[in-house]
Amino acid sequence: MLPVSALRTLTCHPTIPLFLSNLKNRSPCFSKTNLCFLKTHTSMPPSASSKIVAEYAKSDRSSCKTCSKKIAAKGLRLGSVSRDPRGHDLTRWHHCDCFSFNSGTVTSTDAINGFDLLQRCDQEALKKLMSGHKRSLDEKTDGDKEEIEPEERSLKKSKTSTPGEEMELDIPFSVSDVKDMYKDATLFPKWKAFQTIIYLERDDGLHDSGKIAAFDFDGCLAKTSVRRVGPDAWSLMYPSIPEKLQRLYNDGYKLVIFTNESNIERWKNKRQSAVDSKIGRLNNFIKQVKVPIQVFIACGLGNSVGKAEDPFRKPKPGMWRIMEKHFNSGISIDMDQSFYVGEAAGRTDDHSDADSKFAQAIGLKFFVPEEYFDAQSLPA
Asked: d(Cα 338, Cα 356) in Å, to the nearest integer?
């Protein structure tokens, strides 16, 4: 009679049902008890054939297996797919920030099914989740290195961080909180909303960099008026703007626009008009200068009675922090080479000092538009 140890090996073969049936007919000593024993002890554990899949939720019916909360429709979710004992695929869905890569079986995004179909910002966010987990594992398994190098890490951090109380600002960012609409207003393609900011997901040709050339929009790059609304209601502030932006791009700078637009929040009955006007102007500006630019719009309000000041509205550095931590591919920013240009510098005719205070909070060199765009050479 064939020993049970041999049968355990054979049960992994796809023809085992036929084999067991024949064996049972031929051997009177082979009972139902033996069959049950084999079935119980030879099934492969789900983790042995598990895989990871990423997709946008088709509805809001699925729940996260980690936190048990609903996964919003069209929200990015990660699934762990395993084979149950009956041979069927079983998917356990999770919010992205709830998902754990602790198994160590996923070492690159190539192992995530559906990754190539995700939007660029979601791809970048997943890469950060994976790299963050890898760093966490490295820290846990490299205790000696952790003890002997704290001073070196502190020095490295000081070169790319801003001194002062604004350093404490830490805004949690999750791809599951990213929306295709700002409240009740529909956004243009490639534009997304997160809390009270609207951002351009990824302009074609944009490259992340340690060198950031940042600009305000209204009154700095574009001449606009509060009395005129519409995507074409603007003109170039200075004729040298296209050439200078193209030169910066060719020199390896990433161009970023940080602009306040509280009308998007304030005009509750005309919010769609405010969104279309602001984004339309920015899209048309980028087309005219022919340079890829990253854009962040702060829609929140400033100081108001009984309400905390919006952390993204300049002079608060929230937009910069989001860009630095989540939209620059983890590249440290060289503060010596980076700079910010804005027209609100607190001068007699300026409406505020939001731009100069924004640069000060971050630790960036600051220029007013007429100084920068009328100069013969770029700042060193």
From this structure: 15
**Same domain, yes or no, for 287 and 195?**
yes
**Other Cβ atoms within 10 Å of 225 Cβ, number:** 9
pTM over 0.70: no
When divided into structural domains, the chain yields a total of: 3
If DSSP codes are grouped into helix, strand and coil, which group holds residue 213?
strand
Q: In terms of domains, do 82 and 193 share one?
A: no
- Burial per residue of 273-292, b for 16 or more beta-carbon CB atoms within 10 angstroms, e otherwise: ebbbbbbbbbbebbeebebb
Q: What whole-number distance in Å separates Cα of residue 189 and Cα of residue 238?
A: 28
pLDDT tens-digit readout, 311-343: 999 999 999 999 999 999 999 999 999 999 999
pLDDT digits (tens, 9 = 90+) for 159-183: 444 334 444 456 788 888 999 999 9
Q: What residue spans of the chain are helical by DSSP H? A: 4-10, 16-26, 32-42, 120-141, 143-148, 150-160, 241-250, 263-266, 271-289, 318-326, 354-362, 369-373
Contact 327, 121 (CB under 8 A): yes
What is the spatial distance between Cα 293 and Cα 283, in angstroms, rounded to a whole number? 10
- For residue 45, what are its two tokens? 């554990």
Residues 246 and 226 in one domain: yes
